[in-house]
Amino acid sequence: MSLRSLGRTLQSVGHERLLPILCCEGATRKSWQSHCRTDNAISRCYATNLATNQKPDWNKAVSEAEKIVGYPTSFLSLRWLLSDEIANVALHLRKLVGSNHPLLKTAKSLLYNGRNNMQAWGLIVLLISKAAGHINVDEMEEDKAAGVLHSQRALAEVTEMIRTSHLVHKGLVNIYPGLYSETTVLNDMTFGNKIALLSGDYLLGNSCAELAGLRNQELVELMSSAIRDLTEGEFLGPRDKQNNPLPSPPGTADQL
Length: 256
Prior knowledge:
The chain is mainly alpha-helical. It has 11 helices and 2 strands; from the N terminus they run H-H-H-H-H-H-H-H-E-E-H-H-H. Helix 4 (58-69) packs across helix 8 (120-132) and helix 7 (102-112) runs antiparallel to helix 9 (150-170). The radius of gyration is 29 Å and the shape is globular.
């Protein structure tokens, strides 16, 4: 029996019938075992190469998308984050250094996030705007180089700032009696919560004012519904004492 025919036989029979077939001559059995080891090695190598080749390159995808819209969305939020109000917030954030408040991690991710996923929402808005196109618009409104309207770019900025305000608000720490025994730590966490709350409210308030300036009733209604759903999502499902989502028990997803 050749190795190829033996392989077909092993695939066609069940485990209870493998023993008589494996009790063949020693040379054939050794050759088959060597063939199996080689085949398994090739399969593992192929699977590894396939997984490596399919690994997504986020920075490359963002860069190509920015070329499509003709505008570097990495700088969409700079006009908001470099304002005088945010500069004052940054001065107060220096007092939280060393306190392990979640707001520090959020602020760091906003400025030094290597994956560039902070501008993904605004980039998606610009990509959809580019694909949808526009007709019968004033030439002053259209950005010839980017192919999108100035109002569409403003909407992308608003979308990013709404998400940023949501992330800042998520940095609030639930303080309950007995959580912090040291007064210094308690004061730092309380102060950090105040900064996170006021900063998130400032960004969200400015976003809503900018959204109203677009003078589009349907757009305001749509974005308001999105903010509502985004907020409600933080209170659905099981959560720990810090409002972090917990995985649902097995089988509960089918009951929903």
